[in-house]
Specification:
3 strands; rod-shaped; 337 residues; mainly alpha; 3-stranded antiparallel β-sheet
């Protein structure tokens, strides 16, 4: 009996202990449901000590512009979903981190939302290698080296390629006129085309050297432009009168005729000697068949231009005269007999 009573007492004590434990748990739960910052959010409040109205990334946190996305703080930043633009209710995210909004139709909308960019002309937030605010897709000089993309490609050679997206890959531009020397007709920008300066022996890379001042250290020429107009500046349409021009004519334009003179003399003398040799042979020939053979030879030489046509006519006349002379001699001998 005593054992039974002891068991009832222990059972009663255990029931009282469980009741007290459940009561304490309910008190704790009840306490956690209290909205301590009075922002209308209780157990879902991510910022229980700060009144806030954010509803998207976090519940009940500070949202300065009222767009539903909370302002960033020490424990919550942009990568967590905080509002990138806390003072604009129409913008809140920026996937590529270039401070241009992912949201469309805004004055700060990112035209390239998935790629970091700094462009601010025409397109916003797109790649801008040279930081001139013009997007690379619209920039005529992507790398900002002073030479346009088109000119860099045009100046490239088989073994030398100038990369329009590499600021360290720049074609030579001696006169800094943004035209690479490889495609610039006037590398030193002195007004004289490079091809003429090279032809005259003047330095095409020295602005102070021109074909007019390369002799005697003074200006030795001018361009006559008609009337009383003259100029020392290059003018392709004017008449050039200069020491350099005369030397060019003598050394270049007349050099071929000068070199051909010996050849002309050789052919002239050869034809003349051939003509004189044939004429002497004809005059010494009295045989008709031989004269006929010589006439055929003369025709062949004329046809093959081995003797002049005039010489051929003279030789034919000589043959005829020799034939007539031979006939008269034969007739005279016949009459004497």
């Amino acid at each position: 009996m005593q054992s039974f009573l002891l068991a009832l007492v222990m059972l009663f004590a255990l029931s009282i202990s469980e009741t007290q434990a459940k009561g304490s748990e309910l008190e704790e739960i009840g306490f956690s449901f209290v909205d301590s910052d009075d922002d209308g959010y209780d157990e879902t409040d991510a910022c229980p000590d700060v009144a806030g109205n954010s509803t998207n990334d976090r519940i009940g946190c500070l949202d300065s512009d009222g767009d539903g996305y909370s302002d960033a703080d020490d424990s919550w930043n942009y990568t967590d979903g905080a509002d990138v633009f806390p003072q604009r209710s129409d913008a809140w995210s920026d996937q590529d981190g270039d401070m241009f909004a992912d949201q469309v139709n805004l004055d700060i909308t990112d035209d390239c939302p998935l790629k970091f960019g700094t462009s601010r002309e025409v397109l916003f937030g797109c790649s801008d290698m040279d930081m001139d605010w013009i997007p690379d897709v619209l920039d005529t000089d992507i790398d900002g080296d002073g030479i346009s993309n088109e000119m860099e490609v045009a100046a490239s050679l088989v073994l030398t390629y100038y990369d329009p997206m590499d600021p360290n890959s720049v074609p030579e531009d001696s006169d800094f006129d943004t035209l690479p020397d490889a495609i610039d007709d006037d590398d030193d920008n002195d007004g004289w085309p490079d091809i003429i300066e090279q032809d005259r022996g003047s330095d095409p890379l020295d602005v102070d050297k021109t074909p007019f001042n390369q002799y005697f250290g003074i200006n030795t020429g001018f361009f006559y432009q008609g009337g009383f107009q003259i100029s020392s500046a290059y003018d392709a349409e004017a008449i050039e009168i200069s020491v350099s021009g005369v030397i060019e004519i003598v050394t270049e334009e007349l050099v071929i005729p000068f070199l051909l003179i010996p050849l002309y003399l050789y052919f002239f003398i050869s034809k003349k000697r051939r003509f004189e040799s044939l004429r002497d042979e004809i005059r010494c020939t009295e045989d008709g068949d031989k004269l006929y053979s010589l006439e055929q030879q003369v025709n062949s030489l004329v046809e093959n231009r081995k003797i002049n046509t005039l010489h051929g006519l003279i030789l034919r006349n000589t043959i005829e005269e020799q034939e007539n002379s031979t006939r008269r001699q034969k007739m005279g001998l016949s009459l004497e007999e």
